[in-house]
Amino acid sequence: MPVGEEFEREKTEHEAGQSGYKDYLMLRILVESQGRLACLVGDIYPDSSPLRKFKIYSLEMQGKFIQRDLPNIWKQTFFQPQGPAFFLTLLRVGSHPKDTFMNMKAFAPRGGSTLSVRCGAAVPAAQSPTLRLRPLRPGRRAPETVPASPQRAPEPARVPASPQRAPEPARVPASPRGVWAAERRREQRGTSAPRPSDLPKTLLITRPPQAFSPPVLFLPPLLGVCPSPPMEESQGVGAEKALLLPVTESFPNLVDNEVGSGTAPVAQDPGWTRVERRDPPESPCLSWRRVLCIFFLPFISSGFAPRVKHRDNVVCENDQLKLDQRSFNWSHLTPLKLKDRSVGLQTEERAGRNPYFTLEGHEFLIFGGSIHYFRVPRVYWRDRLLKLRACGFNTVTTYVPWNLHEPERGRFDFSGNLDLEAFVLLAAEVGLWVILRPGPYICSEMDLGGLPSRLLQDPASQLRTTNHSFVEAINKYFDHLIARVVPLQYRKGGPVIAVQVENEYGSFYKDKAYMPYLHQALLRRGIVELLLTADNADAVARGHIKGVLATINIKTFNEDSLKHLYKVQSNKPILIMEYWVGWFDTWGNEHMVRNAEEIKSSVSEFIRLGISFNVYMFHGGTNFGFMNGATHIDRHRGVVTSYDYDALLTEAGDYTDKYFKLQELFKYILVTPLPLLPEPTPKTVYPSVDPSLYLSLWDALQYLNRPVISNIPLNMENLPINNGNGQSYGLVLYETTICSGGRLHADARDMAQVFLNETSFGILADGFQNIDIPKITECQLLRILVENQGRISFSWKIQNQQKGLIGPVTLNNIPLQSFTIYSLELKMSFFERLRSVSWKPVPTHSLGPAFYLGTLKAGSSPQDTFLTLPGWHYGFVFINGRNLGRYWNIGPQETLYLPGAWLQPGDNEIIVFEKNKRGPYIHTTDNPRW
């Protein structure tokens, strides 16, 4: 009787009417003896009754079995298989460039713990086939080859020499026992060239048990499935080029001994010659030849190894990826051409291949690129979408920011740059499908992850949970938003083929009812297209919802990413919802960039494996105004104004090396020629601006809205302004009177300047909450100017992102009272009032917070440009009342993008709010600087 090993089991529903048992388990027993494998398959029932029905498969591991044509459904393997499996690769013996190759099929009875390798064709030997099994990550250089252990080697067997080539001389390193015998015979003959008959037919190789990587066979050099120029001896092939066929999928080509059944037809493999078996002497080292009993279920293994199969329509030719044109002819699958619609984007499964997407019944890969309409001037939407289409993409993805679309409770804004419907319909006109990501939380490096800051007014309200007040706010927002989205869906004639539920919830999971609630909220309001979730790879198990497609966000494509996804979802096509081609920047850190070749290589791999993907970002745009978010790793760091993201298009929409490399790749795999590239957006340099007029902050207070009088300092969100919605962005000025000096303590978020009257005394910031006030002889006005530099967008701390002064302000441990609070939201209405103000000439030494006024002369045809502010320290720039965003001399961003569409012919008003010290001029340039 075979010896059993533990295994994982999966219950399934028994067919109705077949028996009285509700559940059954499938038992598979793999028995090996004397070179033959037999697999017993039967049903086990809960009451331990005898097997009622069984099948017996015979797996003859001699030349007779090897000559049979195993199914052409080999799977691309990234992980150690968890059950018996066959391996296929191309093997080159010899170091000469003209040496021939042979197929090598291998069987791993324990999923890779041991590996029996049988060579099925004669080899013109130049080196002994010294093999080594080692884990190797993609891109890593292989170690030097090491002979296999002598204890693991069988006796040598003779293989007929190949008639095509004569053997070439080569020295034979230390090797298994069979090779040693061949070496002795060669020494007696006086030559070091091994005969083909010296080569062993069977080698036993043991993988280090602690490694968790797929088997990698090294024979200098070992090649994968795609022919390529000969490699150096120190090179190897990563696991991604080994092909895997589970034993269970080879059963149809085996002899089926079930009672009443016939023999399955088999096809001959002309590439294999029959090799008669000559068993080596019994050895205790060949422990795998004992009787095995392996219990396994074929569907359980998918939780450990991704079932990504080699695409039949992929070939390698001169290192250039090409695919079967029939599979990538999507010219008829565009929003304007696809008129008769019924099923939309679906997930499909078919025996013998990976799950895949279909669009109206046609196989479809999503080539997506992210463009956020709210970060791009509306006049440039068409330009950016046309460039996306011309690169070869077929889908655009975008977030929908709640905080911008509902700035106050019940007041919605879908106009101008926030016209979501216009953006979606324009995408359809260009020929792009749309995947919508409506949140309510979106992250996107936005302030509070796109949630309205008024949600922080109630300390009892728990964000991203089924808390009553939070859910009530979501329902009111969704009632308005989803009503606009429903007519844009695919089955309604629109371009929206999928909708995402929330965003990356698995990273900060805290309410198991929250995601299912949002799922139902979308369904109830009429969303009928494919629903999906998106999570970082290590959080997908916590963020996915039953019945909703799980997708992942990754920076680097590796085995761990797919491993996590397949643990929760093995029967659905893979969609990488965010493939990060760059990264965002934060103030005081370096500018983030990624190599273009690395991006092209990963995208090539996605396509080769049949993986759909979305490039994040294709075009990042700009965090105009105060929309930027922040991070808090070592300390609070705001996201910079530019959302360039090192994307395929720059912040200003210009082409990059990444763009052209991906376009070059897509040209080879799409039948229809790509559209012509739109002309680059012209840039220019304008005359320098001399801001010769100024208005101090203290003089400008009278033009602000009426201040709030409070006995205690109120945080920004709880100020009784904006119809009870508080203040979301900008700055807050707190004033009170003190009559003595001492230790001042205040929790200011995020950064505060402290003044006595108009004289600055220091900074309060994250980790710096105390300032010593000098002794004063009379009462003076204490002023604390606090700025919101961006609420954290991705953290457990999202619940505690109130801004302004938090809690009491004390002087010598005595709480201060009677505050006058000014709100500086710096909206356009404020700058309209400033136009009637009498500005003063700039003094020789201008210090402290102030507004500076100048004129930018744009000529008759305004074009895009970038502002540089050498000598300026920290502040904001407004052009014709529009907030271009924040500048800061600590970098990494050194320029501010100024869209030509926001300029008018002739003179343009430019106002700079500088918090510290002004510079002499404002210059322009036609290139961004970092």
UniProtKB/TrEMBL annotation:
<keyword id="KW-0378">Hydrolase</keyword>
<feature type="region of interest" description="Disordered">
    <location>
        <begin position="255"/>
        <end position="279"/>
    </location>
</feature>
<dbReference type="InterPro" id="IPR017853">
    <property type="entry name" value="GH"/>
</dbReference>
<dbReference type="Pfam" id="PF21467">
    <property type="entry name" value="BetaGal_gal-bd"/>
</dbReference>
<dbReference type="GO" id="GO:0005975">
    <property type="term" value="P:carbohydrate metabolic process"/>
</dbReference>
<dbReference type="InterPro" id="IPR048912">
    <property type="entry name" value="BetaGal1-like_ABD1"/>
</dbReference>
<dbReference type="InterPro" id="IPR001944">
    <property type="entry name" value="Glycoside_Hdrlase_35"/>
</dbReference>
<keyword id="KW-0326">Glycosidase</keyword>
<feature type="region of interest" description="Disordered">
    <location>
        <begin position="128"/>
        <end position="203"/>
    </location>
</feature>
<protein>
    <recommendedName>
        <fullName>Beta-galactosidase</fullName>
        <ecNumber>3.2.1.23</ecNumber>
    </recommendedName>
</protein>
<comment type="similarity">
    <text>Belongs to the glycosyl hydrolase 35 family.</text>
</comment>
<feature type="domain" description="Beta-galactosidase galactose-binding">
    <location>
        <begin position="849"/>
        <end position="908"/>
    </location>
</feature>
<feature type="domain" description="Beta-galactosidase 1-like first all-beta">
    <location>
        <begin position="726"/>
        <end position="825"/>
    </location>
</feature>
<dbReference type="InterPro" id="IPR008979">
    <property type="entry name" value="Galactose-bd-like_sf"/>
</dbReference>
<dbReference type="Pfam" id="PF01301">
    <property type="entry name" value="Glyco_hydro_35"/>
</dbReference>
<dbReference type="InterPro" id="IPR031330">
    <property type="entry name" value="Gly_Hdrlase_35_cat"/>
</dbReference>
<feature type="domain" description="Glycoside hydrolase 35 catalytic">
    <location>
        <begin position="357"/>
        <end position="667"/>
    </location>
</feature>
<dbReference type="GO" id="GO:0004565">
    <property type="term" value="F:beta-galactosidase activity"/>
</dbReference>
<dbReference type="Pfam" id="PF21317">
    <property type="entry name" value="BetaGal_ABD_1"/>
</dbReference>
<dbReference type="InterPro" id="IPR019801">
    <property type="entry name" value="Glyco_hydro_35_CS"/>
</dbReference>
<dbReference type="InterPro" id="IPR048913">
    <property type="entry name" value="BetaGal_gal-bd"/>
</dbReference>
